[in-house]
Design a protein that fits this description.
There is one protein chain. The chain is an alpha/beta fold and about 400 residues long. The strands form three sheets. Strands 10-9-8-7-6-12-13-14 form an eight-stranded mixed sheet. The chain has a five-stranded parallel sheet with strand order 3-2-1-4-5, sandwiched between helices. Strands 11-15 form a two-stranded antiparallel ribbon. Strand 9, helix 11 and strand 10 form a beta-alpha-beta unit. It is globular, with a radius of gyration of 22 Å. The model has no long low-confidence stretch (mean pLDDT about 95).
Length: about 400
C-alpha cells in the first residue's frame, strides 16, 4: 500500500481497537492442541489469556496447560473477550460454523489465528500494551544449500556453492541487535538458509540470540531440509534455548531422504529437542522468478503487492525486509532490483518510531510495492503448482550436489 499520511495510516483501525479494548484484554483460544499451545505463549507473555475453548469433553473436565477449557455453550454465558481460532485446516470450517451459529462475527468476536497475528495483534500490541510486535522474522544465515530445487522460492539453485559467502557471526549479531532494539516481541524468530545447518557457527548464533533475546521470542526455530544433522554443540544450544526444528519433507520427490529424516529425528528425540516433520504432500508453486517480467506500472504493482501481503519478514544487519524471498531471489539470481526495498531499523528514532515500524510491517511504504513484484506472481502463484523439490540436473548428470548424494 502506498503511504498517504505517514504515522496516521492506521488511525481508523486504532480507533476501533481502542473502542473495544476491554474485549482484547481477555483472549480465549479455540483449540486446546498444538496450534493453540503456540498461540498461548504470546497471550501469556501479554497476560491476557483467560482460557481455552474446545469440543473435547475430556479436556473440558481436566483443563489444558493449567488453564480452564470451556465448551462454546459455556463460554457464551459470559462471552467477555475475543476468540482466536487455532485449529488445523481440516477442522477450521466446522469451528467457524459453530461460532457463526451463535451469531459471533469473524473480525469482531473471533479471529483466525493467522489473520489475528499478522494484521490485528500488531496494532493491539502497540496501542493497548505499548509493545511493538511482529508475527514472523528471519535471519538467512547462508544462501548455500545441500539441494538444488528447480523452483526454490529463495532462488538458491542459482547460488555458486563454493563462492557464496555466508553471513559473518558479527553480521548475525548485528541483525539480532538491530531487530530486538526495535521489536519488543516476535511470535516466531527463524534461522533459515539455504540450509542453515551448513552454517559453521550455528551454535554461536543460537547462543547469542538465546542468551540476549529469548524472552522476546515465542518460538525460536530452525528450518532445515533434513539432509544434515546438527553437531553436538548445536544440539546443546538448541536444548538450552528451546529451539524448534521445522523439517521440510521432500521424501516423495527424493526417496533417499527418508533415511536422512529418520537419522535426524532419532538424534533430536535422543537429545530432547522439539521438531516438526512436515507432511510429504505440501504444495509448491512457481513464483515466476525465472521467467516472469510484468513491465507493469506502479498502480498494477501496488495491486500485486496488496493481494500478496506475505508475512515473511527478514532482518539483515540494520535492514528490515518486508519479503525475505524478494531480497534473497534478487541477490541469488542477480536481479538489479529492490536494493532499497527495506526499512533501516537503526534510523528509526523519535517518539513515533514504533508507529512507523508498524505501518511498514502492515505493508505501507512510499512506493506501495516492491521492485521484485515485477518478477513475481504473488498470490497468483497458487495457480501455478509445480512438483515439490524437483532437483536440477548437474553437469555430471547427478540431481544433487556431489557432496550430498542421497
Amino acid at each position: 500500500m502506498r503511504r498517504k499520511d505517514k504515522i496516521h495510516e492506521l488511525d481508523k483501525a486504532i480507533e476501533k481497537i481502542l473502542e473495544n479494548k476491554n474485549l482484547f484484554n481477555k483472549v480465549y483460544i479455540f483449540g486446546a492442541g498444538l496450534i493453540g499451545t503456540d498461540i498461548m505463549k504470546i497471550m501469556c507473555a501479554y497476560s491476557i489469556l483467560e482460557g481455552f475453548i474446545d469440543n473435547d469433553v475430556k479436556k473440558q473436565k481436566s483443563g489444558y496447560k493449567g488453564y480452564k477449557v470451556y465448551s462454546l455453550e459455556e463460554y457464551m454465558k459470559f462471552s467477555d473477550g475475543i476468540i482466536i481460532v487455532a485449529v488445523n485446516m481440516l477442522n477450521r470450517e466446522s469451528i467457524i460454523g459453530q461460532l457463526e451459529n451463535w451469531k459471533l462475527k469473524e473480525g469482531e468476536n473471533f479471529f483466525l489465528c493467522e489473520k489475528f497475528l499478522n494484521d490485528v495483534f500488531p496494532i493491539v500490541s502497540l496501542y493497548l500494551f505499548q509493545r511493538s510486535f511482529v508475527s514472523l522474522a528471519q535471519i538467512s544465515l547462508t544462501e548455500r544449500c545441500t539441494l538444488k530445487c528447480q523452483k526454490c522460492a529463495h532462488g538458491c539453485f542459482a547460488v555458486n556453492y563454493m563462492d557464496t559467502k555466508d553471513l559473518s557471526l558479527e553480521q548475525v549479531y548485528e541483525s539480532a541487535d538491530s531487530f530486538f532494539a526495535k521489536f519488543d516481541y516476535v511470535y516466531e524468530f527463524v534461522l533459515i538458509g539455504g540450509e542453515p545447518l551448513l552454517y559453521q557457527q550455528l551454535a554461536e548464533a543460537i547462543q547469542y540470540i538465546g542468551e540476549h533475546y529469548r524472552r522476546q521470542i515465542g518460538i525460536l526455530s530452525i528450518t532445515t531440509n533434513g539432509t544434515l544433522s546438527p553437531d553436538r554443540e548445536t544440539m546443546n544450544k538448541c536444548r538450552k534455548y528451546n529451539v524448534l526444528f521445522r523439517i521440510s519433507n521432500y521424501s516423495k520427490s527424493i526417496p533417499g531422504l527418508i533415511d536422512k529424516y529418520k537419522q535426524l529425528t532419532d538424534t533430536l528425540d535422543h537429545n530432547d529437542i522439539q521438531y516438526v516433520l512436515s507432511r510429504d504432500d505440501a504444495e509448491w508453486y512457481d513464483y515466476g522468478f525465472d521467467h516472469l517480467i510484468r513491465n507493469s506500472g506502479p498502480d498494477e504493482l501496488i495491486k500485486v503487492f496488496d493481494s500478496c501481503k506475505t508475512p515473511c519478514r527478514e532482518v539483515r544487519e540494520n535492514k528490515f525486509y518486508f519479503c525475505v524471498m524478494a531480497r534473497s531471489v534478487a541477490e541469488n539470481m542477480s536481479f538489479d532490483a529492490g536494493e532499497n526495498d527495506y526499512l533501516d531499523l537503526d534510523a528509526l528514532n523519535g517518539k513515533d518510531y514504533k508507529r512507523e515500524l508498524l505501518e511498514f510491517n502492515l505493508g505501507y511504504s512510499e512506493k506501495g510495492y516492491l521492485d521484485m513484484c515485477n518478477f513475481c506472481y504473488g498470490v497468483d502463484a497458487k495457480k501455478h503448482p509445480v512438483p515439490m523439490a524437483e532437483q536440477m540436473k548437474m553437469v555430471n548428470g547427478d540431481t544433487l550436489n556431489e557432496q550430498f548424494k542421497l
